[in-house]
Task: structure prediction
Amino acid sequence: MSYLIKDIEVTQPFPTISLSENNTGLALILRRKDRPIGFVMQALPEKSVLTSDELTQIITKEVGKKILEESLKEELKVKTANLADFPSLTVAICTKDRPDNLTRCLNSLLKLQEKFYFEILVVDNAPSDQRTQDVVAALPTVRYVREPKPGLDFARNLAISTATGEILAYIDDDVVVDRQWLDGLKEAWAENPDASAFTGLILPFELNTEAQILFELAGGFRRGFEKIRYGQVLPGNELYPCGSGIFGAGCNMAFCRDMLIKLGGFDEALDTGAPLPGGGDLDIFYRVIRAGYVLVYEPRYLIYHQHRRETAKLRHQYWTWGLGLMAFIIKSYQSDLPQRKNLRRLILWWFQYEFDRLKQSIKGKHPLPISMLLAELWGGIVGLWGEYPRSVKRIEQIRRQYS
Amino acid sequence: MSWKIVHIDLSQDIPALLSDNNIHVVFWWRHIPLAHTEILATQLPMPATQVTNLAASAITPTVGTYVLKQNLLEDTPIDFEALVGSTHPLTKLEYISQQHNNKTVSIVICTRNRPEQLARCLQSLQNLSQPSHEIIVVDNAPIDDATMQVAKMSGVKYVKEPRPGLSIARNTGIRHSTGEIIAFTDDDVVVHPDWIMRLQQAFDDPKVMSVTGLVLPGELETEAQVMFEKHLGFFNFGYQPKTYDSDFFQSTKVFGAPVWRIGAGANMAILRQAVNLVGEFDERLGAGAAGCSEDSEFWYRLLAAGWICRYYPASVVYHYHRGSVDSLKQQMYCYMRGHVAALLVQYEKYNDQGNLRRLFRTMPKWYIKSFIKGLIKEYKFSTFFAEIAGCFSGIIYYIINYKSPQPPLIRGAKNRLLSPPY
Result:
């Protein structure tokens, strides 16, 4: 079971696409003049052949309006900051015992680094062996630091103090950056030189297993193909900025390093790995907005994420997301008094949302199976039930242990 | 809270937005309005790049309609080649509908005791990019000669019509005009320089008998003006050109053809020929009589006879909505009264059951629903009861005036009323 992923440039004649006998569907990454403008998934019988006419139909339906929008945008005159003034950049990859993933990720970055120099910093988080260090040692333009304290946000915080760039971009080791990734970040900055945080589009690296397809069908990490500038209000969203999942995800985000220092960095009690492996990205996005900074979402700032291959791991991931969200809410509830009312409403909203999805799933109208949704729900309940305070205590212990 | 209205010409450098008020932004490409969007005071200041992104996404459907002649919002197949091949779609907007026709245009403004507003309207007519054949002010049942003074001052044709009623005044205006096209506007508007040129362009098919245009708000200072513009939406029928023909009429007839969507009397033009074909405005309808809907009932007759009405929003006027909630209530009362009377008149003339269905089924259902919704969701009933009262009053008005004289049909028109025009 797998979906064929195809890059389609809409300004060029379309190819005929033939699916192999293993393919159960097709995913199209649609671009116009190389900018990503849309993504569409379609289940198809194996070995089916899509003519360019059939492709045209699918594509027009998906991005017809968007193509025109992009085309007329080229005619609009707006002053942006000069790209030559783009600040210095550090790209940090926090990794733990996954040298193969890291190599793949670094290779995609090095291609961009050849054209525009930026610092690449690998933060090796409590490694159990030398392999990560060996990978980096072979690459002269990549820096290596080790964070012995286990926990993703320990590693992210070490990156803040080690990096030299004014902008600090984080990517996970299980991603590959798109050829437009850096230009996307630069463009987002040029259009919003006052912004302090950037998030980007995340598309699937592969769709080779049922779990990967499921996750992407349920929306994946995608946050759309429109540029969004997030400020202090979002019309139509009363819970803003509490539902901070809308901003993006931790595997593709960038910040002004000075701002991160002012905010006190990432919350090390989140993203600790088991038993609280998540919520750190939600927390930092939320704090960025609450401190009055601007966050920009840019679709051209694109990476490909390798989703969990095994169904059991995906289920665990859903559990993690429920847990991470609630841990973040409980934390914010304690630290951000003016938003308490909204945070309470967010909890209610979330349970209602999960129950709605469960209902749909029972009726067979939701791509996710009941078990995944229950896992997420259960994660949420555990998160509400004091996981964050427990994690704070555990973190204290780790700090003492390594000091 | 009052709204600031900002017009942005996207062919120029796009500005950042800064204000203490909410902003109602209208996006234009040179002289063609493409969309509006609402920006709340809490979103400000807004940098130019964000304004640009909002603009691009807001104007795309309209640009699609003009340039590709396709409605991107509906589920119609789009010509992909044209879509991808369309470079500089905005520049292409300048070449839409360049064909001029030579039909002469008479402008008719019906007014009643509002000389100051009339003066402002006449002032704006001085700046037309394409001068009209004549301007006629119809002074409807005036209490003094102030209106006459204003008309004389600006050198336009002045006609006094002592019998009150907008339909009567419009008909008087038609009789005194000599142009092939008669363009109507109200005294409480200011017109865009291209108003007449665009109206005229839209008569591009011999079957087009009436053209309406866009009515933008002149100001949104008071609560009533904001409510009128944003919640009631009687004036702004969007930025995409639309064609109303017999297909539209036949397919909606059973529910009561929604002819009121075609446009507003504050920005409407008709061919003189249309009056010969389907008669004048019904004098039982319109402000001063039933309340309104003399325009839509006229379109109803045109569509029933197989002619075409066009909505062409490149033709723009700015309307100054009523300032106070009380006068808004009064207006809503009149609107519903006129609307109901028009449904009955349409039924009387064409026996289309849809009109009754709308009056006795759709509308009561809608009002009951919104009443219940209002009870639950704290809806402001500011105009609700006025509207209901207007509906009942409309029925009574129709019954009382049933036998009053019909508008004189011009000779030879009656037998052509129902025959297909082609």
Q: What stands out?
A: The interface with chain B takes residues 10-11, 56, 59-60, 64-65, 67-69, 71-80, 191-192, 194, 226-227, 229, 231-233, 235 of chain A (CB under 8 Å).
